[in-house]
Amino acid sequence: MRILRKFAVPATVAVSLLTLAGCSGVKTSAADINSPLVPQGSSPAQVADSSSGTLFTFGRGSSGGGTAQATQIQVNAYLWRATLSTLAFMPLVSADPFGGVVITDWYTPPATPDERFKVNAYILGRELTANAIQVSVFHQTEQNGQWVDTPADPATASGLEDRILANAANLQAAAQHTN
Questions:
Q1: Residues 6 or more apart from 135 whose CB is under 8 A from it?
Q2: For residue 84, which of 34, 40, 136, 169 sits 20 to 30 Å off, Cα-Cα?
Q3: pLDDT tens digit string along 101-157?
Q4: How many other C-beta atoms can be found within 10 angstroms of the C-beta atom of residue 59?
């Protein structure tokens, strides 16, 4: 039993170090993780099978040089940037560029500390159209020290959608003007 105890901790440390060393070959940056780019016609899960690369090399192969396939945005890039920009005043919980989903944490407006809001935004396609963005707003009010769900004004969600669409149109116009 003493022998097992003597070697249990070093063995656990060795296995942990080997596991971490196995991960060290994957070189990703924040830009790779947050980029809405994947190989054309592929889902992120399919990327792992292409060009002998891993999910994190995005089809570049194990050498890491040059892209093996052309990349294409899976959601509208202008809507994606406009969504992040419009919701920047709220803390983000999750932003999935591959699925086009942005989820915020609860935000309490300074003027009304007894209420808070949470927003989920879904980019539904590659086109810059009004039906390519869907926003859900959740509202809670504080009652007797507890946060209670209350219905959000539907105009809030549609107002955010309108702002996102306007920002996306401005981004697209600016990009076309510079070309």
A1: 119, 120, 121, 122, 157, 158, 160, 161, 164
A2: 40
A3: 999 999 999 999 999 999 999 999 899 999 999 999 999 999 999 999 999 999 999
A4: 24
Half-sphere exposure of 130 (CA within 13 A, CB side): 4
Residue 47, number of CB atoms within 10 A of its CB: 21
Q: Token pair of 124, please?
A: 């539904």
Burial of 146 (0-12, 13-18, 19+ CB in 10 A): exposed
Tell me the pTM: 0.60
Token pair 């196995």 in the structure block, residue: 22
The token pair at 17 is 């170090």
The per-residue pLDDT for range 16-32, each reduced to its tens digit, is 444 444 444 444 343 44
Identify the bridge partners of residue 138 per DSSP, sorted by sequence position: 118
Partners of residue 15 on adjacent β-strands: none
